[in-house]
Every structure is written in structure tokens, then in C-alpha cells.
Amino acid sequence: RSAWRWVGKSMDIFVESFLMGILSSTVTHTINVASTAINMLYQIPVGVTSVAIGAARGNVDRMTLDEALIGPIAWVHSMREAMVAGGKAFKTEEGASLGSKLDYNRKAISSENLEIGPNSPNARRIVDMMGRFIRIPGRFLVMEDEVFKTLAFRESLYKQAISRGAKVKRAGGSEAEVKRVISETIQNPDKIASETAEDYGRAMAFQTPIEGKFMSAMADAFSHPLLKIFVPFFATPTNVIKQVAANSPLAVTMPSFYKAMKTGGKEADIAMARLATGSTIMGIMAMASSGFFGDDVLFTGYGPTEPKARAAWTGKGFQPYSVARKQEDGSYQSTSYGRFDPISGMLAMAADAAWHMRHSDQDSISIAMSASAGMYQYMKQLPMLEGAFDIAKLFESGGYADPKDFGAKFIAQMTKQVTKAGTVALPGLALGPLSPTGSLAATVERYLDPTKRQGQFSEDMPDYLRHHPHLGEAFRNFYSGLAEARSRMPWVSEGVTPDTDRWNIAKTESNGQVYEIVSPIKIRDTRFNDVEDELVSLNLGLTKPARRFDGVELSREQRNRYKEIANTLENKKA
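RE: above sequence
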């Protein structure tokens, strides 16, 4: 039991270092702050719509315009309190309210967890200092969430105070009684007001506790250190999906919608307001994506799903979930809008539905299903869920379905994920957020070297490992993982072979601009290519260069050489 206990502690330390490594990027924190702020601002039009719906339905206990618009005022009044709460959270690494995006056993790297007694004070100080340094990205994440949850908490109290004051006024209470109720609710909230405000704060930060037997069991399973390697965060993307659905036509499929309708009154008004506001935004987005306002501005979703057509589309320079503006020379410049949830998810679903309406002859039901599938495609783009979708491939039809081949494929996929996690976690144990393989280093590397590098094993990989009859793919994934880690390291990445498209033109990951160190917005320009122009217009594509010949997977050098030969024209004399 003692041995297994230390195995568990070691796994917790590994996972903590891994999570801090993937959270170290400045872009990650920009996304967290921007998404939460957008989510809170979005509640204003939802509230205004709720006021109109409540008035139309004749509800006495409905949201007032003061409640709908009080948010910014509450934020200004509680900003100092929010900053204090954020500073305390940064210092203690814990928020005052329940819930956190870091859904794992925190402070694994500490003298307490490692059971270092008071008889070794120097060892305790060193370990605790290392832990605090390694957890700096987590500190910032908790601090950011605590600031916004405090603002949302106070906003909810202001709204409840206005609502309670209105009830007292309707009951014939005096002006003094109304002011007293409002003041008490804000300054000394009771249990109901506090719990309601806490729930609202968690919802704004995408930290609502997972409910339901199945989903709760999933959340418990994905909190295990082993599964954290594949799905670092489960609760946050689950809450994102739920909020996107609640603010779209998919709301009518959710039990929470019918629960609110059954409750009636203000709850029903808000549920219908979310449905109406989100559907309106999605409708406008679908019209814009369909070319209703012209082709000078295009709104893209996931794009073509057929691999060949998608390769031509992305090779042309378009990128998924972007606003493509036509330039004077006829080219397009794409600016991404993804990862600002829940708005981005709503826009993605609408754009995907419009894409299928524009490029297929399917009926309305099929198009609606395509819009729902658009959410699946959008979630696949989120880095936090990349490992989950990779594992899901093991159970899809095709080659993975062969029982004789499944074991080797499973080991190969496990090797890929463990190698990826190890290259982030192990250097992070020594260098924390300054690790050369963490996401912060990768962000800096993309600025210093915009060229995309191949995360593929090199030609100098030992042949007996590369061509092992049973574990060859696992060994290749291991060496590919090392190459991918090297491609993320500033200055070192230049030694990794550039990744090229089918025309043997080097791909880029960024524009090499300073703003990209903090901004998640990606800007790309399309290029002139007559063949690609025709293929994109027809929603077709060319066959990709082969990755294997007679079952032998090509190294990165071989793949580039193959593309070079394929794009070389020679004049041969008769």
C-alpha cells in the first residue's frame, strides 16, 4: 500500500507539471479572460430580450430593464473587491468560491504532499518554492477566474436586489422599505441570494458543477491522473458545450430548457431569451456565410469535410472559423474568430449549416444535423480535447476495427500521448513555466520562427525500431513526439525539417508579429494559384502525397524529397 501510495503521488506530480506546462502560454490566459468577459457581456442582450418576452407574456414577476442593464454598473462598483479577491487567489492558489478549471489534486509538488517533516526545514522550503514556481500558470488562471466570478457574484446580487425591491413596491411597501431591502440584499445577502450569486458566477466562468449520473461519472473518471494526459480538462469544455447549446436552437433538446419553462416566470423568460438571442445571431451569421451580403466578406466554418477538398481549401490560405475579407487584388485575408466562447461556438454552428446549404443539395433536416455536427467539428479544434478525439479514432470503423491490429494501434496511440505529455512535464519539473517545451516557449517560437516544422520522426531513427514487426508504429510515434517537442523550442526548432504542402511550399504557423504572443487571433492571406482556385470553386481537391509506400511510413526527409520530386518538371528529349 505504501508503494502504491507513492506511485499515486508521482503521477500527481507528473500531471501537475504537465497541466502547468500547457497553461503557461500567454495566449491561453488571453483566451480565458476574453471568453469570460464576452460571456458576461452577452448576458446584457439576453436580459433585454427577456424583458421584452416577459412583457409580451404578461408576467408580473419578470426581469426589469434595470436588472438587464445593471451589470456594468455592478462591475464598476465591485472592481476593487474583485481585484482584492484575485490577488488573494494568486497568493494562496485557491479561490474564495467553489469551482475551478484546475479540476485535479492541486499542490502535488509540496512538502505536505511529499510528507517532508518539520525536521527537514530546508528541504521543505526548497520543495514548496519549486511547487509555487511551477504552479505560476495555475495561479494566474485561478486569479483571473476569481476576478470575474467576484464581478459576476456582485452583479447577481444587484439584480436580485432590484427584483426584491420591485416585489416590495408591488406589495405596497414604502420607498424606505424598498431601499432597505435593496441595501440588505447587496450588503448582507442571505443564504438564498448568496447561493444564487455563486451559481451565476460559476456559470460565467464555465465552472458549473457537472450534474447527472453519467456525466458525473465521466467527470470523476477524467479526474484520474492517467486520463488527464489525454483529456486535461473535462468540466470546462462540457460547460462550454452546454452554454452554446442553451443559446442556440439546440436548446429545445435540453432538459434544462423544459425545466425552466415548467418553472415559469422569469426563468422561462430567460430560457426563451437565450434561445431567441442566440438563434438571431446564428441566423445573421448563416446569411453572411451563405453570401447573402455579397462575397466581399465571407464567414467560414469548419470548411470542406472531404479530405482532398479540405487540403485544397486550407492550402489556398483559408482557415476554419474565420472572417475572410476580400482585398483589392482579389485575394482574401482570413481573421479567426474561434475560441471566444460561447459566441464562437454559436457562430461556428451557423457557418457550418450555411456551408452545407451552399455546397450540397441536402434537405432541411440534413442541414440541421450538419449544424449540430458543426459543434463536434468545432470542439475538435480545441487543444484541450485533442487527446480525447485521438483516442476516439481507435474505436472508429476502418483499420482500427481489426481485432488483430487493435492492440498495436492502441499501444502506438498511448505512446504518442504519453510522449507528448512527458516532453512537456519532465522539463517543467526543473524549469516550470520557463521550460523550453512548454506552451509559453512554443508561443515565443512561433513568433521567432513562423515556419511550421514537421513533428515526424527523422531518417536517422534506428531501422530495427522503425520497422519493428509489432511495435514499429509505437516507436515511430515516440520519435515523432520528440521531434514535435523540438519543433516547439525557440532557436532549436530551426534544425527540424519544415512542413510543406503538396506543392512543396513551406507552411507557416504565424505571421511573426509581436501581438501574436498574446493574441489567439490568427490572420492569413490567400495566395494566387489557378489550380487551387478552380478546385476550391468546385469543392474538390487533389490526392495528397502518400505517407506510406508498401506499408512503409516515410520519414520527414523522405516526405519532403517525395514532394520535391513530384513538383519537379523535366524536359526529356526523345
